[in-house]
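call fold(seq) -> tokens
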Amino acid sequence: MKFTKKAFRAALKANDQTKVWHLTAVKFGRTPSKKEVYDLIKEISCTIRENRKAYSIAYESQRKQRFEAAELMAWYNRGAYGQYGDSHYRTVALEMLRKLHDENHGNYTKVPMLGHTRLYFCSPVYGHSDYNKVRTCAIEGNENFCNNVVDLGERILAKKSA
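ret:
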């Protein structure tokens, strides 16, 4: 394989770390150092995005990059909340109700509230604007369960407030 700027840029665009290292080795005729790979990427890259990839391609392992990308995708698939998934929403809702019942009423109390599509446990003061709310289940298909949780939460809060 021959070193060309076009092939090197294509490898950068594809984020192919192995090919970038191989082309750098072909250019220098030996195994390059991390600094040489980094400097070559900085020199040949045309876009800011490619320029920003220089450090990760030269100094970080490909396995670490794949692991971080997989973690990020898993986080997005969870709804980018990272708190609770839908698989155990009834348990989470009941745990939050138990916590509401057992703990004293304070600044961090979370009460159940219906959103547009989901059941949330939010601060009674901030409501849905609470940045620390807990998202539990989708309302669609669970209307009866969600309404029961909200009613029970209101009764518990009324008892605690009185």
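The chain has a mean pLDDT of 84.
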